[in-house]
Amino acid sequence: MGVPGILLEVRGKTLRSHSGETDPSYLDAALRETHEELGIGAQNIEILGQIGPPEVNLRGNMVVHPFVGFVHAGPSRFDHNMADVDDEPLPSSLTSPARLRASLFRGNRPYWAIGVQDLVPNGMPNPALIEDLPKQQESHSLDDSEIGVGKYGNLEVWGLTGWYLYLLMKRLRLYR
């Protein structure tokens, strides 16, 4: 508590779909989704900025706008029933070389996929989510997911989420 950290959420592909909800801005959409998925109200989030340019998902049906914020203590609480969540303090084990695996985002931009298997209680998320977890394809150019089963069968942050986390860690000078 009181230490900056990275909030990681493990969610299955069927946990929630983006059914075309509309909001006045991309930021409003991000705040709404954070409340819906984690139970954290907008009043408890201080937006620090965007960490990278928007990216179109591989299906071409959504543009992702990456916002970074600080979650303040308050009446909102994480709803652990919605997803498996971990708050990893910074600097953290997320920078350990043993945790990092070289990968390519969209086939041409190097980044680190990050092993997080040991950060989830019992090494895997809620058993109901395991079957639905996205699995990274052998082709790194097809990465489009969040946290899921990585190339070697371990739970990893990869794809679009891994790319944005890599950009954030570089900005914080935790990666070189």
Short description:
With 176 residues, this protein is of the alpha+beta class.
Share of residues in helices: 10-25%
Number of strands: 10
**Order of the strands making up the biggest sheet:** 7-8-10-9
What is the terminal separation in angstroms? 27 Å
Which band does the percent of strand residues land in? 25-35%
Element-by-element helix/strand order: EHEEEEEEEHEEH
Kindly provide the radius of gyration, computed on alpha-carbon positions and rounded to a whole number of angstroms.
15 Å
Shape: globular
| Whole-number tally of structural domains | 2
> Helix count, per DSSP?
3
Q: What does this entry look like structurally?
A:
The strands form 4 sheets. The chain has a 4-stranded antiparallel sheet. The longest helix has 13 residues, at 26-38. It contains 3 helices and 10 strands. The protein is globular and about 40 Å long. It has helices at residues 26-38, 127-130, 159-171, and strands spanning 5-10, 45-50, 55-56, 63-64, 67-71, 84-89, 100-105, 109-115, 147-149, 155-157. The protein is α+β, with helices and mostly antiparallel strands and 176 residues long. The chain has 2 domains: 5-71, no CATH class; 90-171, no CATH class. The protein starts with a strand and ends in a 5-residue tail after the last helix. Keywords: Hydrolase, Magnesium, Manganese, Metal-binding. InterPro entries: CoAse, NUDIX_hydrolase-like_dom_sf. It comes from Lentinula edodes.
